[in-house]
Amino acid sequence: MLSKCANPGCAATFLYLHQGKLFRLDTSIAVVASTSAAETKKPSRRIEFFWLCHPCAAELTLGYKRETGITVVPLPKALARAQTA
Ligand SMILES: [Zn+2]
């Protein structure tokens, strides 16, 4: 799961911990939403790790959307910069 950059459009591979940004996300919400009725009785907490390479981490962060689950989203400050530019 942690073999490449979380940005689907980026091919950077995960090599060194000190490069880019590591995210630790609790994906229990996504798990509950996607499991069957029997399994939702006992939702399991799942901690997943995601990694963004350095160039992507400068522009992106990770967020959760009900439709797609964990997804990459622009950093708020990157958005603000785009709007004022
Ligand atoms: Zn990347």
Structure description:
The radius of gyration is 15 Å and the shape is globular. It has one domain (21-84). It is built from four helices and four strands, in the order E-H-H-E-H-E-E-H. The N and C termini lie far apart (36 Å). 28% of the residues lie in helices and 28% in strands. With 85 residues, the protein is α+β, with helices and mostly antiparallel strands. Strands 1-2 form a two-stranded antiparallel sheet. A two-stranded antiparallel sheet has the order 3-4. It has helices spanning 28-34, 37-40, 54-57, 76-84, and strands at 21-26, 47-52, 60-65, 69-74. The chain binds zinc ion. Residues 5, 7, 10, 12, 52-53, 55-56 line the site of zinc ion (ZN).
How is the topology of this model organized?
Blueprint: E1 21-26, H1 28-34, H2 37-40, E2 47-52, H3 54-57, E3 60-65, E4 69-74, H4 76-84
Zinc ion is lined by residues 5, 7, 10, 12, 52-53, 55-56.
The tally of domains stands at: 1
Bound ligands, each once: zinc ion
Biggest sheet, open or closed, and with what strands and sense?
Answer: 2 strands, antiparallel
* Spatial shape: globular
Using only CA atoms, what is the Rg?
15 Å
Order the strands across the largest sheet as they lie in space: 1-2
The number of distinct β-strands equals 4
Identify low-pLDDT runs. none
Number of helix segments?
4
- Helix and strand composition category: alpha+beta
Query: Beta fraction of the residues?
Result: 25-35%
